[in-house]
Amino acid sequence: MTLRLSTVILPVHRWNEGGRDRWRRAEELGFHAAYTYDHLSWRTFRDGPWFGALPTLTAAATATERLRLGTLVTSPNFRHPVTLAKELISLDDISGGRVTLGIGAGGNGFDATALGQDAWSPKERADRFGEFLPLLDRLLTEGAVSQRGTFYSAEEARNIPGCAQSPRLPFAVAATGPRGLKLAARHGQAWVTTGDPKLYEEGTPEQSVEALRSQIEKLGKACAEIGRDVDEPDKILLTGFTPDRGRLLESVDAFVDFAGTHRDLGFTEIVIHWPIPGSDFAADQAVFEKIAIEAVAQLG
């Protein structure tokens, strides 16, 4: 199984003060894709610079030629399918059809209340996502859409000429629960996970591997229910949130060992964070770049 290596570049740098350079360097290093978080702010970065995901990706599209671009992940927390669809079609056009939309139900972080609303319960997030994703799918594949929903509606929403990619840009659906996995099976060209959050602090790498194996098995069941081959959707692991996160980028050998184990589980793409000094994503830039250049070839 061929494994792809991608990176995620957090939008914390002014474009003319290192932002552009990182996206161009990601292409030079041969990454399959470079993603960014789609948040209004995020955890320990809340009191520092943080730029919008879609404008950043638009700028990245004009600064690169081959690199795939995307979000990890967009959510309903502060977005609406109608306006999001228009922006995604524009971005896909500007990039020449290089966009992947990572999308999930959202969480209860800063984005959950930034618009002045109360944070949604897990059930309401799942309910909203279950309406948001199918409507977005329609908006990106049909010229005009009218639909009345409980949470999201569209009235003669027109999206001509549609995406540069056909029939639409791919969805990478982030999900671990049963409802989300069903949406991933039905609408996703890929599935995304960060592992089991319960293991983040005190779990072991072995427990994490078993948790991921279980998630893939559940995705397989969701695919089987609709007659889809579980091997069809790509499986993306966003690293940085598993128990062995601190050792992952220590050396090429350490990464190759990690990546080989997870490739054998069925993952087709592994995403590593571009190093940010003084943060949870601190790493040696030289080692990071060596991993980008050498690791995939070592995996065979």
Question: How would you describe this structure in keywords?
Answer:
300 residues; 8-stranded parallel barrel; alpha/beta
Order of helices and strands: EHEHEHEHEEEHEHEHEH
Oligomeric nature of the chains: single chain
What integer value in Å does the Rg equal?
19 Å
Going across the biggest sheet, name each strand in turn: 1-2-3-4-7-8-9-10
Q: So how many helices? A: 8
| Biggest sheet overview | 8 strands, parallel, barrel
Shape, principal axes of CA atoms: globular
Average residue pLDDT: 96
Please report which band the strand proportion falls in: under 5%, 5-15%, 15-25%, 25-35%, 35-45% or over 45%.
Answer: 15-25%
Distance between the termini: 9 Å
- SS-derived structural category: alpha/beta
Q: Would you give an account of this structure?
A:
The chain is α/β, with parallel strands linked by helices. It is built from eight helices and ten strands. It has helices spanning 19-28, 53-63, 81-95, 122-141, 178-187, 205-225, 252-265, 285-299; strands at residues 4-8, 33-36, 68-74, 99-103, 144-147, 154-158, 171-174, 190-193, 234-238, 269-273. The strands form two sheets. The protein has an eight-stranded parallel barrel with strand order 1-2-3-4-7-8-9-10, surrounded by five helices. Helix 2 runs parallel beside helix 3 and helix 5 (178-187) packs across helix 6 (205-225). The radius of gyration is 19 Å and the shape is globular.
